[in-house]
Design a protein that fits this description.
With about 210 residues, the chain is an alpha/beta fold. Helix 3 links the parallel strand 3 and strand 4. It is elongated.
Length: about 210
């Protein structure tokens, strides 16, 4: 039996090393790391990713699949739920670094299975909803910039956060995390997190204005 970390890295601000460090800090002993670099979790199903396909072949009954959160498996509801349930049927145990959740086939009790499956569905839906909300915010920022008939001579104060940090903050907010825990996870000040939470569209527009 082995413990495998799957890391999907979709932006320049994300790194597999960071996801591995988070997993180790959470107490996981990782035997192998499988990485998909520059892959969209919305458009490319797990089974169609170069390294994601390996998981379906290499994982066996009793193995543990570790992910930072379910959005690393994908941001499409059907894809994520199908993948998680496929692994459970194979006897693979899935664990998340964030919230320390476990999904497996250890129970045959109907109510416990229903609760497990409901949690899987909720997390998959949250991952897709967060991705869609982010796309809407980005689109609104782009349209706002296009609506300006002249170049902006004053772009406002440069954001104190990067595109990757903004994405992380909005994702964790969608997961229900508080400002203090997000600040600790990202290294941003609590005030910055609160500003993003108060107006994510304005925060995204600032990033676009500065070309970030």
């Amino acid at each position: 039996m082995k413990t495998v970390l799957y890391a999907r890295v979709s932006t320049v601000d994300q790194t597999a090393e960071h996801q591995l460090t988070q997993a180790r800090q959470a107490g996981f002993t990782i035997d192998e790391v499988v990485i998909d670099q520059g892959v969209s979790g919305v458009n490319v199903p797990l089974a169609e990713r170069a390294q994601g396909r390996r998981l379906f072949d290499m994982l066996r009954k009793g193995d543990v699949l570790v992910v930072r959160w379910v959005d690393r498996l994908g941001r499409n509801y059907a894809d994520v739920t199908d993948a998680v349930r496929h692994f459970i049927r194979k006897g693979v145990i899935i664990k998340t670094v964030i919230n320390n959740l476990t999904f497996d086939g250890a129970t045959n009790e109907p109510m416990q299975m229903a609760i497990r499956d409901a949690m899987i569905s909720f997390m998959a839906a949250a991952a897709q909803s967060q991705a869609e909300a982010l796309k809407i915010a980005q689109r609104a920022g782009i349209e706002h910039a296009k609506a300006q008939n002249k170049p902006r001579t004053y772009k406002g104060r440069k954001p104190s956060f990067s595109r990757g940090e903004f994405d992380t903050v909005t994702r964790m907010l969608a997961e229900g995390a508080g400002a203090s825990s997000i600040s600790e996870a990202t290294g941003l000040t609590r005030q910055t997190v609160l500003r993003i939470r108060a107006d994510p569209t304005a925060a995204n527009s600032a990033l676009i204005a500065w070309g970030l």
